[in-house]
Write a structure and sequence with these properties.
This protein has 289 residues and is an alpha/beta fold. Helix content is 38%, strand content 16%. It has helices at residues 9-15, 28-32, 34-47, 61-66, 71-87, 103-107, 121-137, 151-161, 185-190, 211-222, 269-279; strands at 3-4, 51-53, 95-100, 142-148, 168-172, 174-175, 178-179, 198-204, 226-229, 235-237, 242-244, 260-261. The protein starts with a strand and ends in a 10-residue tail after the last helix. 50% of the residues are buried. This is Homocysteine S-methyltransferase.
Length: 289
């Protein structure tokens, strides 16, 4: 049975009228309007999601400091991201995954879609570890190491979450059969093989047409259950600062055997509700219409 994730938290917040154009992105609302984050999470839970991913993707202590917040307040906001997702739950069995986005996300310049920042694995581990420790201390059910652009950062994230006592998934942003950094997916997914903390490996923030092939590679290379939560299929025009094209989200992108499925950018509660209806088996004893 496939476990349903949520969709794009920022997408839902923007649909609710919020401008997320500053460097903190959705994390800005942790300080400015936390009730709206609860409402956005709740919309996805009501749509059928079983796992909500926190508003911490682009949050970091350094980013909060640049916004004029001291370390104590930064720690409070990171922990709050977990508490708000937990508050939004609408039924028993719903889970919270604390988002750990890539280093590039905190630059707010799109470099998470390129990777290769010129930093060593040790440098990246040192960056991710404090945030991972804070998020883990808030008691999430899972850690979401997501939108990872290259193998070096994946290795750093796995080191950063080591011994924190919280299961995690590892999800790359990809293009075709390569990471955004250009490495073969076979190499990328293999870094999780044998790591008992990692409960699933896969892809997010990618074209839905790339999911099926990537899912097969992920399963074979990692020996892990597969997670997939692509974008809608629309494209961001950075010059015009708008999305172009049409959504291809549907469910045709979802291959058999994916253990965790949801959406990323431009995927809202209605899309998740449609996906929920498509992947939920008929009730016991029911007959096809």
């Amino acid at each position: 049975m496939t476990v349903l994730l949520d969709g794009g938290l920022a997408t839902e917040l923007e649909a609710r009228g919020h401008d997320l154009s500053d460097a903190l992105w959705s994390a800005r609302l942790l300080a400015d309007d936390p009730d709206e984050i609860v409402a956005a999470h709740r919309a996805f839970f009501r749509a059928g999601a079983r796992i909500a991913t926190t508003a911490s993707y682009q949050a970091s202590l350094a980013g909060f400091a640049e916004a004029g917040l001291d370390r104590e307040e930064g720690v409070r906001l990171l922990r709050l991201s977990v508490e708000l997702a937990r508050e939004a739950r609408t039924s028993d069995g719903q889970l919270v995954a604390a988002s750990i986005g890539p280093f590039g996300a905190t630059r707010a310049d799109g470099s998470e879609y390129r990777g290769h920042y010129g930093l060593s694995v040790a440098d990246l581990t040192a960056f991710h570890r404090p945030r991972a420790e804070i998020l883990a201390s808030a008691g999430p059910d899972l850690l979401a190491c997501e939108t990872v652009p290259d193998v070096d950062e994946a290795e750093a994230m796995l080191l950063a979450i080591e011994d924190l006592g919280v299961p995690a998934w590892l999800s790359y942003t990809i293009e075709g059969e390569s990471t955004r950094g250009g490495q073969p997916l076979t190499e990328a997914f293999a870094v999780a093989r044998g790591n008992d903390q990692i409960v699933a490996v896969g892809v997010n923030c990618c074209d839905p047409r790339d999911v099926a092939v990537a899912a097969g590679i992920a399963r074979e290379a990692s020996g892990k259950p597969v997670i997939a939560y692509p974008n809608s299929g629309e494209h961001w025009d950075a010059r015009a600062r708008r999305w172009t094209g049409e959504s291809r989200f549907g469910r045709d992108w979802l291959p058999a055997g994916v253990a965790y499925a949801g959406g990323c950018c431009r995927v809202g509660p209605d899309d998740i509700a449609a996906l929920a209806a498509a992947i939920t088996p008929p009730a016991t004893g029911s007959r096809p219409g």
